[in-house]
Write a structure and sequence with these properties.
Length: 202
């Protein structure tokens, strides 16, 4: 896993290890047993998000994370301002196919919330009987999702779930790594499930 992660992130090892704050806590489990593993070599849109590129690893839970991440508000402003073509629709993605199979085995009239739904590609691929809801901060992408019949519930999952809404399925594809507090984010998603509901995260 670590090898694949490093290849995907294109880590550039630094001689002697990068400078880092020894007081950093793991955002996954809260442990202080973290150490630097390198620096992320970024390109494209990642260079526009402020924050250092030092990658730390937690020896307790195994999570790799950036030393400094933008605040939730800064990330929200960033994603709201992106153009509508940053990521292509990939309805044939493996994780989409697997999630569709799981949902197909459940009640065909279930409520599905896709967090970070972008233009609604995944939701659009679900059977017509499924009630499709999305959370998407980018206004251009959200408008495209609406055109596909997705009910956009806003740009923040926090506001939506604090309203007490519950869903049979909640999906979040390639979203958790964009959150400043992944453990808290996952907890919020779980709180939005009905009894017996399911959470799918990649």
């Amino acid at each position: 896993f670590e090898r694949r992660f490093a290849e995907g992130m294109k880590l550039q090892e630094t001689a002697g290890g990068p400078n880092y704050d020894t007081g950093v806590l793991c955002p996954g489990c809260g442990a202080s047993t973290v150490e630097p593993v390198g620096r992320e070599r970024v390109s494209g849109i990642a260079t526009e998000v402020p924050g250092t590129r030092t990658i730390l690893s937690c020896s307790k839970c195994g999570l790799w994370f950036r030393q400094t991440t933008p605040s939730g508000e800064a990330l929200k402003r960033y994603y709201e301002g992106l153009g509508g073509e940053q990521w292509p629709d990939e309805e044939r993605r493996v994780e989409f196919r697997l999630a569709r199979k799981l949902i197909a085995k459940s009640d065909g009239s279930c409520d599905v919330l896709d967090v970070g739904c972008w233009t609604g590609a995944f939701l659009n691929s679900l059977p017509a009987g499924v009630r499709k809801y999305g959370v998407e901060p980018n206004l251009v992408a959200a408008a495209k999702a609406r055109d596909r019949g997705v009910r956009i519930e806003g740009g923040s999952v926090t506001d939506l779930l604090e309203s007490g809404r519950k869903f049979d399925w909640i999906t979040a594809f390639d979203v958790v790594e964009h959150t400043p507090a992944p453990r808290e984010f996952l907890g919020r998603l779980v709180s939005g499930l009905r009894e017996g509901g399911h959470l799918v995260v990649t």
